[in-house]
Every structure is written in C-alpha cells, then in structure tokens.
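Module 6 notes. Inverse folding takes a fixed backbone as the condition and produces residue identities as the prediction. Think of it as a translation problem where the source language is geometry and the target language is the twenty amino acids. Below is one complete input and output pair. Work through it position by position during the lab.
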C-alpha cells in the first residue's frame, strides 16, 4: 500500500510539473526578449520602406520630365518612371507608388486599385500635403487602419515640384511579428492613438482602439506593470487569466508581447500545496 500511495503522490507531482510548464514558457524574460526582437524588426522594416522612397525621390528622371520639351519625350519619361515604380512592387510590402505634381495632378501611378483618384487637394490631402511639407531627403509617414504611406518631395531649384508616395501594407508587419513567435505567445502592434495595426492572434488589424491584453488598453497596461513611457515588463491578471507582458516603443508605435501563465492550482494528493 505504501508503494501504491507513493505512486499516486508521484503521479500528482508529475501532473503538477506539467501544469506548471506554461509558466516557464511565458516567463517575463522571454516576453521581454520577444518584445525587443519584434520592435527591432518593425523598426528595420519601416526604415527600409522610408529609404526606398527617399532614394527614388532623388532620381534625375523627375527633373528630366520637368524639362521635357515635347509630348513624346514626356511620354517616354513616364514609361521609364512606370518601370522604376514597378521595381518597388511588394518590396518590403510597398504598393501603390504614385507621383503627384504641384497642381495636385497625378503624373503616374503603378499598382493602385482601379478608380483611385487622379487629382488631389495639395493643402488638404493628408499624403500630398505631408509630402510637400518635407525638406529634401526627408520622408513623411502617414498611418491609417490598413496601410502605412510614405511621401517624399522631389526638389528642383530649391522647390518641391512633385510628391512621390508609396503605400506599405500592414500585412508585412503582421508577417514579421508572427515569424518565430512561439505557440501561446502573441504580439500586437499599436499606433500612437491606440489603434491596433497588427495582431498575431487573428492575422488582421481592424483599427480598433482599446483592449490589448487582459482587457487593458495600452495606457492601462503601462500603468499595470509600472513601466515607463517607452518600455515595461510585468504580469497582468484578469479573473482566472494571467499574462506576462512586455512592451517596447518603436517611434510613435508600440510593440506589445504577451504569453499566458498557468494559474496556480492545488496538486492532487499534496494537501494545501499549490501547483505552479
């Protein structure tokens, strides 16, 4: 009987250890490392998109187009631009490359959906106005619920003559957040307004503001773990759910990494001892 009792007790302890294993998988050091890794990946992807547009805006083809003396020459230069723009298609998630002149007229666009506008209010359109407001070699970044848009001026004789822009799909960010994220952990990308831009739990971003982890908004989560404006790590609880959470800022965005933690429970046959 003593042997049987010992076997039952040992079985209970093994079960206890198995239940406790998610705690190790969701350790705060792991989610901290995950948040930092994904923040770095987001920063690199964003920088690459910006660099592509900043570099292309300096191409001499745009100045040649300004100085074109015939319609035929202008048409040949637009064809050359179309080829250039096509090289960006889906590179770092870039889509919809467009060139707009000072009057708000579309010069050329590649990779946009049919029916997209061909004229713009240069003072009110968020992309065009932001692009014209930039200094040479600078890139404006405009975010909405599903895309990130980069806009850079094309400068000639100290004046912005065109705005070159390209959309970057947020699906590219969801892809880098998902890659290598272990089962049981998840990562959310949030903008400065608290909108969800990417979420590895559902693969989509709906632009919703509010609850990220354990029913908490980003600001509430920062307070819960007593973190700083730019980073923090700790545990948050909602009812019987517990999460290890870490967040890391990336410019005006924030990456939040989290993993569930097993709730302690009593081990079978171990009296008042807690499992995990």
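Target side of the pair, the amino acids:
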């Amino acid at each position: 009987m003593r042997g049987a009792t010992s076997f039952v007790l040992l079985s209970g302890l093994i079960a206890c250890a198995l239940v406790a294993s998610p705690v190790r998988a969701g350790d705060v050091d792991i989610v901290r490392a995950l948040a930092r890794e994904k923040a770095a990946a987001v920063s690199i992807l964003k920088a690459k998109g910006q660099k592509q547009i900043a570099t292309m805006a300096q191409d001499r083809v745009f100045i040649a187009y300004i100085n074109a003396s015939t319609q035929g020459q202008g048409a040949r230069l637009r064809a050359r631009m179309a080829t250039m723009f096509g090289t960006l298609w889906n590179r770092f998630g870039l889509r919809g490359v467009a060139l707009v002149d000072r009057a708000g007229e579309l010069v050329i666009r590649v990779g946009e959906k049919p029916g997209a506008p061909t004229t713009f209010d240069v003072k009110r359109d968020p992309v065009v106005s932001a692009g014209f407001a930039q200094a040479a070699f600078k890139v404006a970044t405009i975010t909405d619920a599903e895309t990130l848009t980069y806009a850079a001026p094309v400068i000639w004789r100290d004046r912005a003559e065109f705005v070159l822009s390209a959309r970057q799909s947020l699906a590219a960010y969801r892809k880098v957040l998902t890659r290598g994220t272990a089962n049981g952990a998840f990562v959310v990308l949030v903008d400065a307004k608290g909108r969800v831009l990417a979420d590895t739990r559902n693969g989509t971003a709906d632009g919703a503001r509010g609850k990220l982890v354990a029913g908490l908004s980003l600001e509430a989560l920062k307070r819960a773990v007593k973190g700083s404006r730019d980073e923090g790590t700790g545990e948050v609880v909602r009812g019987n759910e517990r999460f290890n959470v870490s967040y890391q800022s990336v410019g005006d965005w924030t990456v939040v990494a989290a993993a569930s933690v097993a709730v302690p429970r009593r081990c079978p046959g171990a009296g008042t001892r807690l499992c995990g």
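Reference fact for the lab report: Helices lie at 2-25, 28-56, 61-66, 71-87, 126-132, 171-178, 218-224.
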